[in-house]
Design brief:
heterodimer, A: four-stranded antiparallel beta sheet, B: seven-stranded mixed beta sheet, four-stranded antiparallel beta sheet, 1 helix, 48% strand
């Protein structure tokens, strides 16, 4: 079983651009679409990006997603204090026949 | 508005079972699947399984197979998740989550989440 791997933490100052990565395998990210969720402490997750790079309505275009091979990337430009949250990638795994979430990346806005 | 409302917090003893409800409103419950995801304190999200809102077919994570049962009552637009043989490792916040459009459903993207139900397992 290969749970998608994310760096535990990331940080940036207001206005900066930060990148969060999520590395999977050929049984999940390599062949499946990835969705990203944002979770502010004490609240339920919120859909941020779906189908690798699509934003649901209401999500600012400061958030963008991309994919390369078995890795996906979430970029946040023009960092704002309200972006401080935990970010999770998620992808279906064909070997496990189940949905896998990454370990999460805690973003701190300095 | 579109929302999922879950039942309240539970405290259970080891070996017991817990049943959490999730009531949908603002969209057609029977059109889309309902998923269950849990989050232990300080941990990541963990997918448990889903139920097809229309025909009631279910699919469970291998980790929980045999211990979790997901059901639904369409007339009440409510899904249920029952977890048995509880241990302290099952202490977590349990969420229901669902896609509510054809687009998000196509990609298993959960555009709506319940508020979460805290389940504490303690002797």
């Amino acid at each position: 079983q290969s749970v998608p791997t994310q760096s535990p933490s990331a940080s940036g100052t207001p206005g900066q651009r930060v990148n969060i990565s999520c590395s999977g395998s050929s049984s999940n990210i390599g062949i499946r679409v990835v969705n990203w969720y944002q979770q502010v402490p004490g609240t339920a997750p919120k859909l941020l990006i779906y189908n690798n790079n699509q934003r649901p309505s209401g999500v600012p275009d400061r958030f963008s997603g991309s994919k390369s091979g078995t890795s996906v990337f979430l970029a946040i430009s023009g960092l704002q204090s309200e972006d401080e949250a935990e970010y999770y990638c998620a992808a279906w795994d064909d070997s496990l026949n189940g949905l896998l979430f990454g370990g999460g990346t805690k973003l701190t806005v300095l | 508005q579109v929302q999922l409302v879950q039942s309240g917090a539970e405290v259970k003893k080891p070996g017991a079972s817990v049943k959490v409800s999730c009531t949908a409103s603002g969209y057609t419950f029977t059109t889309y699947a309902m998923h269950w995801v849990r989050q232990a304190p300080g941990q990541s999200l963990e997918w448990m399984g889903w139920i097809n809102g229309g025909d009631g077919n279910t699919k469970y994570s291998r980790k929980f197979q045999g211990r979790v049962t997901i059901t639904r009552v369409t007339s009440a637009s409510t899904a249920y998740m029952e977890l048995s043989s509880l241990t302290s490792e099952d202490t977590a916040v349990y969420y229901c989550a669902a896609p509510t459009t054809a687009t998000t459903a196509r990609y298993d993207a959960f555009d709506i989440w319940g508020q979460g139900t805290m389940v504490t397992v303690s002797s």
